[in-house]
User: Fold this.
Amino acid sequence: MAAVSSPTSGPDVLAPKQGRVWGKLRRSRAAWIGGSIVGVFVIMALLAPLLAPFDPNKTNFLLIRKPPSALYWLGTDELGRDILSRLFYGARASLMAGVVSVGIAVCVGVPVGLAAGWYGGWLDIIVSRITEALLACPFLILAIAFAAILGPSLSNAMIAIGLSAVPIFIRLARGQAISVKAEDYIEGARAVGVRDSLILIRHLAPNTLPPILVQSTLFMAQAIILEASLSFLGLGQQPPQASWGAMLNTAKNFMEQAPWMSVSPGIAICLVVIGFNILGDGLRDALDPKEA
Amino acid sequence: MSTAQPGSPDSDVILSARHVTRHFGGQRSLFRREPVVRAVDDVSLDIRRGETFAIVGESGCGKSTLARLLLRLIEPDSGSVIFDGRDVTAASPETLRQMRRDMQIVFQDPFSSLNPRMSVGQLVAEPIITHRLASGADVAREVGRMLALVGLLPEHADRYPHEFSGGQRQRIGIARALASRPRLVLGDEPVSALDVSIRAQIINLLEDLKAELGLTMLLVSHDLGVVRHTADRVAVMYLGEIVEMADVERLFERPAHPYTRALMEAIPAQDPAARRDAALLEGDPPSPSAPPPGCRFHTRCPHALALCRTTPPTLDGIGPGHVVACHRASDFPARDVLATVPGNETRQRRIALFAAASNEASRRQPQ
Assistant:
């Protein structure tokens, strides 16, 4: 395609309005709040070795299940490890599990779903039947199956979680594609003579985005919890390495004797999910031209 | 018809359709076969260069489908469409894509026909860039020129469709349709989604642009007022078939098909006291998935004979450029169905009383 603009050419009519979206994102309160929450946790994860007051994996059988104190701010766990330190290190595994698995699910599921909805016919029938078969399996079973095939490790757990969420995104994207495909402006683009590939990228995909964005942020929470379940089964983060999910999983056995063990990873998961959700809302609004 | 090869570049026919047919449905689902809807059945027509050709009919008669078939936005089952000497129906996808430059469409609903995530500038620039009519700074200049042409400001290029009113959006749609400098523009009910107060503006804009740019217009409408005002020739459709086709004056003055007469008689008269000697159509058109045998109109036709129930009529010429598909067309006296007779005395007196009463009421209101 011909070069659309030169820098001196006044209003650049066809350039994607990145400056505008970015500007709106910076002015958006939701984006700021969500971004700050997520940012804090990302910094926690990155700077864990500097921030953690103790070795997260060092056990001390004299300090088993101690409540929060001046020395151990969030208390200790059932092996006498410092919970605060484990929270910092666990942030790495949990954030990665959330972001990477959602990334995999979106990158695989959305294009396949859009293509199935857009082209229809045999492609749609085949993709839909496979998707339905996969959706019929309980989510956790699917993830366990993938994790078992790939072998036990954190990165394989992320891939497994991502793959097992692919059908959800295929279905969502397919439904969106089918509904947007029926809009007059898609026929309008064909009438203008726009290439099919460009119609898909320029007209169809952007208009299917908002529900996919929301689903992604919601799934982030599920992925963090699912990583915990896989850890519990020995298929995720390998002990003694920490992840929030694994911490929560152990802590549930000591709910009565040591509630602090479950409170801190629980709040951490909660905050990260809220952070991603608010950030997602901000992003959605910034991408929507109808929002001033 | 003037030439042997309609639709060739030098003939005065820009678009020529022959036996165009499109049926929907008919797929075998798990338990039963879907009914076949005969949306457009064996339609042939010629559109002359520079004219405004209107297709009218009730909703569901297939007029929008026919228009889309002519532009091959819907694939025909059979038949051919020749545009300017080139076969639209046989064109490869890439050839067709390039041919689209010459045939554009203005949609009915200005709210759903513009991508909400593209700015007005992007929308109007898309056809220009797609067909490489300009590059670099010229694109923006061309967009500004198109916007000015339809009565918008070049500054509007940075705004988004939702910031505009229905009439303004339709102007954007027109700018987008004209940006690739087409030769044929299809208006698919271009004003029926708009407020009555701005319909005239948009219709006049289309007429002005047509004259200015030397366009040919294909107008799909159920609004006979608009058709009479703008069209040069009119085709009347009923249940997927053309039942009558003529020049606009002739069609409105001497409608030959009973269906066309009924449509004309349904136009409200301007004088409230006047009455028309009219028998309005009753009932709905039959389902296009099970069209009646013989003449498709016989179920609602006040003049139907036994012949009409068994034998489909053919489109036959009954005057210069005037064809009609009716067995009894020659039986009807030519008369102006739009002529009104003054209402009877009671009616006129009632209307006069009403006018007096409302005058009285408006005079008293200030106190």
Remarks:
- Chain A has one domain: 23-49+78-287.
- Chain A touches chain B at residues 1-6, 8-14, 17, 183-185, 187-195, 202-203, 206-207, 287-290 (CB under 8 Å).
